[in-house]
């Protein structure tokens, strides 16, 4: 609908309608929404939210703050894709992306609290619908899932769908394309949606209920979160009478425990209360006090200096204040859920719009500055000499989301997500990291451990069998890669090898045609046979590109999920084509080697043929590196 109000006028009106509600827990329980006298917290929220909507291309947001027994909820701007409908904290639905996991981990801790599973029990013993790979002897436990340390590769396919009718039952979503286990559990943090989705199915298998039913009956309903739902397309998401949800939304979670929650500010205030008040909100208990304490304690960290993982929540230190939090985002929405247990404070912020993340973060930063201020007047750290093993640290590091992926998704992660980290050692001993446009400096405080020269952050290096292999920036892990693995190097190799390969693909048939036209002498039969074999290898490359593009076009024209979200079962056939080309290329290499050993053919013929075969080998190596062959070694 077109807006009939100016932006400033609408913001003022919506703030008057939805903002400034500060009530005690008992008042919230009775459904009271009468505004009380504005407090300093309300003023802070009003100022930050109004400024955030003015500074960013965001349509609306809602805020919930729990400060002891006080609850502050407010709404600003307009509902999603409904510009004449002001945001109300108690009824306007927002998507919260990965903040959905907070409800999932809360439900998982309920199952633990009831003695139906222990945190260190193998989840495979309780899963009825999913068979996990038995790659390692060490079993995956619920503790591993909650700290994102089960050792799975990142799996993007199957996480979402573009239409609600494509959403699968959770059991099907988690049992199809089960991600590979790429390392033993407990070794390294690697955030994945699959860990939370599998936890949701674990809850379902233990309880005998569908995940959504269990969470509704055991978390949402007892807490009075009556407007919250894991439905893929709740009609109230877009309140405009003549607008259907599917007409304006292109993302639907196919793994609802990880990213499928729709909720309101008032509902999330109740979840904040439960976590801050020993498992109780409005007199309703969903977890024991011991279980809540267990959720908030640290369960994993790569080093004592580094913020780690609580049970499904991320630790974050601001000065001497410890937070546990979780962020989330899906297209057009960004959210934050954060607790400061020692201060009995919690906050929830969610925004929608093209710049939802920026708007959300501006409000979150203002609240953090109020409840967990940081003294930034510390002295600048200086190095005490060169770092130990300095030569081993320098180089480029790429996210393990790419390096440890054994499926064809590796190319997607490598090209489209994340940026590598370049590490060098300055002359005075400072370690300098550059990631994109950001440059940071670090000082070694113990072997392989570095502190930022100004900020309160830590950088770690991890070694395997005595060699430095990984860089850890907080919990984010990066693996050191060789020069030949850098995208810029591989890009130039691809261009050069393609040009050389084309001289064979185009040049050999052209030369043969020219000889026939001029009546020239044909080359030896061995040359002709060798070129036919090499031609088969070149054809494999060309047919792979053509078939890949053809499949993308064909799938896009079908009434089905996208190729990335859910590739059809026959998609793997595409990778058979270049695999056959590898076999032909191996034969071409043998012909080239024999020609040189026997001194066959002319020197020019041998050099050109070898160059073409070498270029083919480079291109097939690149396909293998990015897991684009049917037989994958990576």
From TrEMBL:
Domain Beta-lactamase-related: 46-358
Keywords: Hydrolase, Membrane, Transmembrane, Transmembrane helix
GO molecular function, one term: hydrolase activity
EC number: 3.-.-.-
Domain of life per record: Archaea
Hydrolase among keywords: yes
TM stretches of this protein: 491-511, 532-557, 569-591, 603-623
InterPro entries found in the cross-reference section: AmpC-like, Beta-lactam-related, Beta-lactam/transpept-like, TAT_signal
Principal EC category: hydrolase
Keyword Transmembrane included in the entry's annotation: yes
Official protein name in the record: Serine hydrolase domain-containing protein
Lineage: Archaea, Methanobacteriati, Methanobacteriota, Stenosarchaea group, Halobacteria
């Amino acid at each position: 609908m077109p807006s009939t109000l100016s932006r400033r006028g609408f913001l003022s009106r919506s703030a008057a309608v939805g903002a400034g509600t500060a009530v005690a827990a008992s008042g919230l329980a009775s459904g009271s929404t009468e505004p009380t006298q504005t407090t300093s917290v309300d003023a802070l929220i009003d100022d930050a939210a109004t400024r955030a909507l003015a500074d960013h291309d965001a349509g609306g947001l809602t805020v919930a703050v729990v400060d002891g027994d006080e609850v502050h909820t407010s709404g600003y701007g307009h509902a999603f894709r409904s510009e004449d409908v002001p945001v109300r904290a108690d009824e306007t639905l927002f998507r919260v992306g990965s903040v959905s996991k907070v409800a999932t981990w809360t439900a998982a801790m309920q199952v633990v609290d009831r003695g139906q599973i222990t945190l260190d029990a193998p989840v495979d013993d309780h899963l009825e619908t999913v068979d996990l790979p038995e790659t390692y002897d060490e079993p995956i436990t619920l503790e591993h899932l909650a700290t994102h340390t089960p050792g799975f590769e990142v799996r993007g396919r199957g996480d979402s769908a573009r239409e609600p009718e494509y959403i699968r039952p959770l059991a099907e979503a988690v049992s199809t394309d089960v991600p590979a286990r790429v390392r033993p559990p407990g070794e390294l943090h690697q955030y994945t949606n699959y860990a939370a989705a599998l936890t949701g199915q674990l809850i379902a298998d233990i309880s005998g209920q569908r995940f959504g039913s269990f969470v509704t009956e055991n978390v949402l309903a007892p807490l009075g979160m009556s407007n919250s739902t894991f439905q893929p397309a709740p009609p109230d998401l877009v309140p405009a009478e003549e607008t259907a949800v599917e007409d304006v939304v292109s993302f639907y979670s196919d793994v609802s425990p990880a990213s499928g929650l729709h909720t309101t500010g008032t509902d999330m205030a109740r979840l904040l209360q439960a976590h801050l008040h020993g498992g109780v909100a409005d007199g309703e208990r969903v977890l024991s006090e011991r279980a809540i304490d267990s959720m908030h304690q640290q369960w994993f960290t790569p080093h004592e200096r580094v913020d780690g993982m609580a049970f499904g929540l991320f630790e974050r230190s601001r000065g001497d204040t410890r937070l546990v939090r979780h962020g989330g985002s899906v297209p057009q929405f960004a959210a934050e859920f954060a607790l400061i247990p020692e201060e009995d404070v919690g906050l929830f912020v969610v925004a929608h719009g093209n710049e939802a993340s920026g708007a959300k973060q501006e409000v979150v930063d203002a609240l953090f500055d109020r409840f967990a201020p940081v003294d930034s007047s510390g002295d600048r750290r200086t190095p005490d000499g060169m770092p130990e093993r300095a030569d081993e640290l320098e180089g480029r590091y790429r996210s393990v989301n790419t390096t440890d992926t054994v499926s064809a998704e590796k190319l997607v992660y490598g090209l489209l997500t994340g940026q590598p980290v370049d590490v060098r050692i300055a002359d005075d001993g400072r370690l300098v990291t550059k990631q994109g446009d950001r440059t940071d400096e670090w000082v070694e405080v113990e072997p392989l451990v570095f502190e930022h020269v100004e900020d309160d952050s830590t950088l770690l290096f991890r070694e395997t069998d005595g060699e430095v292999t990984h860089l850890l920036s907080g919990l984010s892990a990066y693996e050191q890669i060789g020069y030949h693995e850098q995208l810029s190097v591989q890009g130039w190799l691809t261009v050069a090898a393609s040009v050389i390969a084309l001289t064979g693909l185009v040049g050999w048939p052209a030369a043969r045609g020219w000889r026939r036209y001029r009546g020239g002498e044909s080359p030896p039969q061995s040359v002709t046979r060798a070129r036919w074999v090499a031609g088969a290898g070149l054809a494999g490359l060309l047919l792979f590109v053509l078939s890949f593009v053809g499949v993308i076009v064909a799938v896009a024209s079908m009434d089905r999920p996208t190729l990335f979200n859910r590739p059809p079962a026959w998609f793997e056939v595409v990778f058979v084509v270049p695999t056959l080309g590898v076999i032909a290329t191996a034969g071409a290499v043998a012909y080239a080697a024999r020609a040189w050993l026997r001194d066959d053919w002319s020197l020019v013929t041998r050099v050109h043929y070898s160059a073409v075969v070498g270029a083919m080998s480079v291109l097939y190596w690149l396909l293998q590196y990015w897991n684009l062959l049917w037989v994958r070694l990576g």
